[in-house]
């Protein structure tokens, strides 16, 4: 016990986060590679199993095989467990179990838990983690019931319940895994399936901070308690999410060549579904992504790059990062402080946003460069696959199953970076670097 404690103390919180996700990924890959996980009872290559496990823990949804036909029920349940853990954070389970067992959490455990969900208040993190599990249960349960009742028209009761649970968890965790070939294209015209997936995905994508803040706001409004206002974080998340989804849906609606028999309602529903899918990074699709126009693909790539919001189950640079970078640029050009909604954004937030944005661009550029060398695919397909992996979205232009071994390894690393976050990985690598106890003279460098 003392030895384990001493080993624990050697790692920084950021390193523990990275190691935790790595451990779960490797264990998941091992289980998925076993014959019991295969529908045919055969071993899967560890690289392909690792690809799927990484896709699951990162809630990406990219896969080199068809999940519904290749994996047995056991394999699908293992995958579902992986993306459930990946969606709400493995530290959520650890902290909650410690809470139930009455185990006192150490300061380091609190810090790791705090960082695993993008900085929940350390003093209130137990209550926050309970809220995380509560919101997760509410939305996943509700989605599962609605979808199960819908699928009972086609399948047996037991299988319908399983389908409802699998797809509801996949939607809330913004994982995008489906047991149907072609994702949800079969249900393109089903308003119930589309709206259910949209609502559950949005709940997972806007983040637990926003869900909790909205809950408190509604309660205070109902009880007429004051002050009653939303936090700056919630305002930015809601506004940016609404704008990017609305603009994305409009562009897809106007740029696609739709079937003549398709109604305007059907076009709008499909456009909205794909915009939400890319923005929340849930990764479901009701249209053949590989056949979409270049304009639509570019729009979806932008939505995947921006992604969901901090403290959510989704990926991407996050809506608040985009907002802060744009506010900072606007303020600098006008030589003003970075103010929004009568609040000033701190310099630390601005620095973090710029670093995250830059790291994502660097990771994307590196992956794209390697894939253009190793893969036989069009440039826009490589771009799309890279941004889908980095944004943990899972939408594919149809080249995932044809990737080379190097290409699959590149996307494994890219998906992992997108899930853990470039800042956490950078801090994990550099946090033990010795700080200089002196400063060099300053000197200007010409830029621009």
What's the number of domains?
1
Strand order of the largest sheet: 1-2
Annotation, overall tally of beta strands: 2
DSSP summary: helix tally: 19
Helix/strand/pairing category: mainly alpha
Mean pLDDT: 86
State Rg: 22 Å
Helix content: 55-70%
Shape estimate: globular
Structural write-up:
The chain has one domain (10-429). It has 19 helices and two strands. The chain has helices at residues 2-10, 13-33, 46-57, 67-70, 73-88, 90-101, 107-116, 125-151, 157-172, 191-206, 208-223, 232-255, 264-279, 294-306, 319-333, 347-374, 379-390, 405-420, 422-430, and strands at 339-340, 343-344. A hairpin with a 2-residue loop joins strand 1 and strand 2. Helix 3 runs parallel beside helix 18, helix 5 (73-88) packs across helix 6 (90-101) and helix 12 (232-255) packs antiparallel against helix 14. It is globular and about 70 Å long. The relative contact order is 0.11.
Notable characteristics:
448 residues, mainly alpha, two-stranded antiparallel ribbon, 2 strands, 65% helix, 1% strand
At a glance:
The protein is mainly alpha-helical and 448 residues long. 65% of the residues lie in helices and 1% in strands.
Give a topology summary.
Layout: H1 2-10, H2 13-33, H3 46-57, H4 67-70, H5 73-88, H6 90-101, H7 107-116, H8 125-151, H9 157-172, H10 191-206, H11 208-223, H12 232-255, H13 264-279, H14 294-306, H15 319-333, E1 339-340, E2 343-344, H16 347-374, H17 379-390, H18 405-420, H19 422-430
Antiparallel strand pairs: 1-2
Helix pairs in contact: 2-3, 2-5, 2-7, 2-19, 3-5, 3-18, 5-6, 5-9, 6-7, 6-8, 8-9, 8-10, 9-10, 10-13, 11-12, 12-13, 12-14, 12-15, 13-14, 14-17, 15-16, 16-17, 16-18, 17-18
């Amino acid at each position: 016990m003392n030895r384990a404690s001493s080993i624990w103390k050697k790692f920084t919180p950021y390193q523990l986060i990275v190691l935790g996700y790595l451990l779960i990924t490797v264990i998941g890959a091992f289980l998925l590679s076993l014959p019991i996980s295969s529908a045919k009872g055969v071993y899967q290559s560890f690289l392909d199993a690792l690809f799927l496990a990484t896709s699951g823990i990162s809630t990406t949804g990219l896969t080199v095989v068809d999940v519904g036909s290749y994996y047995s029920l056991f394999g699908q349940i293992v995958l579902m467990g992986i993306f459930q853990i990946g969606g709400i954070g493995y530290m959520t389970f650890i902290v909650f179990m410690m809470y139930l067992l009455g185990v006192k959490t150490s300061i380091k455990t609190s810090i790791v838990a705090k960082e695993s969900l993008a900085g929940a208040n350390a003093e209130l993190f137990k209550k926050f983690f309970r809220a995380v599990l509560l919101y997760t249960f509410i939305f996943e349960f509700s989605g599962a019931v609605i979808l199960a009742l819908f699928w009972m028209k086609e399948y047996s009761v037991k299988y319908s319940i399983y389908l409802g649970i699998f797809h509801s968890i996949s939607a809330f965790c913004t994982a995008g895994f489906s047991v149907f070939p072609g994702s949800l294209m079969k249900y393109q015209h089903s308003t119930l399936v589309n709206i259910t997936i949209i609502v559950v995905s949005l709940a997972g994508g806007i983040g637990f901070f926003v869900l909790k803040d909205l809950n408190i706001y509604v309660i205070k409004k109902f009880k007429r308690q004051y002050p009653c206002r939303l936090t700056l974080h919630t305002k930015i998340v809601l506004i940016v999410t609404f704008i990017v989804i609305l603009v994305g849906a409009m562009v897809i609606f106007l740029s696609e060549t739709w079937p003549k028999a398709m109604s305007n309602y059907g076009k709008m529903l499909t456009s909205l579904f794909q915009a939400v899918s890319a923005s929340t990074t849930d990764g479901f699709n009701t249209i053949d992504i590989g056949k979409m126009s270049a304009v639509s693909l570019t729009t979806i790539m932008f939505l995947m790059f921006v992604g969901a919001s901090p403290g959510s189950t989704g990926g991407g640079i996050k809506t608040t990062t985009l907002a802060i970078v744009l506010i900072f640029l606007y303020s600098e050009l006008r030589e003003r402080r970075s103010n929004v909604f009568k609040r000033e954004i701190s310099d630390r937030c601005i620095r973090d946003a710029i670093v995250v944005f830059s790291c994502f661009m660097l990771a994307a550029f590196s992956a794209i460069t390697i894939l253009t060398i190793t893969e036989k695919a069009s440039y826009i397909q490589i771009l799309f696959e890279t941004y889908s992996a980095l944004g943990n979205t899972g939408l594919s232009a149809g080249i995932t199953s044809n990737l080379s071994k190097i290409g699959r390894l590149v996307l494994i690393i890219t998906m992992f970076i997108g899930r853990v976050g470039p800042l956490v990985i950078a801090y994990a690598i550099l946090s033990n670097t010795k700080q200089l106890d002196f400063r060099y003279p300053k000197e200007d460098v010409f830029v621009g």
